[in-house]
């Protein structure tokens, strides 16, 4: 099985297209796992962290599957559920801001725009933190460092925003399509973090 997986990823003499298709298929599968692991709503940071670790193993030609994903997910949940709860609270605040804009309150447009931009930045920082997560890592430390990288690496952050836009468009076109595409967003975050480390 391990040899077969290694062969899919690019054995000598194999078409590069086969390896790329295998990575794409792994991203889609990971997206479904992330979606299922996020069903309790506050568990999405742990789900993205486990998905990032899974894709990292795939890219490193290491053995990994659902069992390893589940183990990482359980480990990331130790502090990740609180991060998920904070994310929903931030979304609720931005929703109030948007309602203020629609109600025509003075200064509402500025407050609403700032709130939406801050929410997008927080989502990007959260994805970058999840991509950098390792067992035993502190979510608070990861988020602080990811927030700095979000500002210091705008090109990488915009790449992640582009991935998020693809998820939104997929959900608008057909909601089930957004589930596997979550894996592509996770892969984008993993690639952005790897690119930043090698700079």
Helix-strand blueprint:
Blueprint: H1 2-8, H2 16-37, H3 44-59, H4 66-103, H5 108-132, H6 139-152, H7 154-173, H8 175-197
Helix pairs in contact: 2-3, 2-8, 3-4, 3-5, 3-8, 4-5, 5-6, 5-8, 7-8
Transmembrane segments: 21-42, 79-98, 110-133, 158-191
Keywords: Membrane, Transmembrane, Transmembrane helix
Protein name: DUF624 domain-containing protein
Q: What portion of the residues fall into strands of 2 or more residues?
A: under 5%
Share of residues in helices: over 70%
| Protein structure class | mainly alpha
Mean pLDDT equals 88
Per the principal axes of the C-alpha atoms, what is the gross shape? globular
The value of Rg in angstroms is 18 Å
Number of domains: 1
Spans of at least 5 consecutive residues with low confidence: 1-12
Instruction: Please report the number of helical segments.
Output: 8
What does the largest sheet look like? none
Distance between the termini: 35 Å
Order of helices and strands: HHHHHHHH
The total count of strands amounts to 0
Overview of this protein structure:
The chain crosses the membrane at residues 21-42, 79-98, 110-133, 158-191. Keywords: Membrane, Transmembrane, Transmembrane helix. The chain has helices at residues 2-8, 16-37, 44-59, 66-103, 108-132, 139-152, 154-173, 175-197. The protein is mostly helical. The protein has one domain. The protein starts with a helix and ends with a helix.
């Amino acid at each position: 099985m391990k040899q077969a997986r290694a062969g899919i990823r690019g054995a000598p003499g194999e078409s590069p297209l086969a390896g790329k298709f295998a990575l794409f298929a792994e991203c889609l599968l990971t997206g479904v796992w992330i979606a299922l692991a996020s069903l309790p709503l506050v568990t999405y940071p742990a789900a993205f962290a486990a998905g990032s670790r899974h894709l990292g193993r795939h890219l490193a030609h290491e053995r990994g599957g659902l069992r390893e994903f589940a183990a990482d997910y359980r480990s990331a949940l130790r502090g990740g559920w609180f991060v998920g709860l904070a994310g929903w609270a931030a979304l609720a605040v931005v929703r109030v801001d948007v309602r203020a804009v629609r109600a025509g309150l003075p200064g509402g447009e500025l407050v609403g725009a700032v709130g939406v931009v801050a929410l997008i930045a927080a989502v990007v920082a959260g994805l970058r933190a999840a991509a950098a997560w390792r067992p035993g890592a502190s979510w608070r430390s990861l988020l602080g460092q990811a927030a700095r990288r979000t500002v210091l690496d705008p090109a990488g952050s915009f790449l992640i925003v582009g991935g998020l836009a693809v998820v939104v468009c997929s959900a608008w076109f057909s909601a089930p399509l957004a589930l596997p595409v979550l894996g592509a967003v996770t892969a984008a975050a993993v690639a952005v973090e790897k690119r930043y480390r090698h700079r």
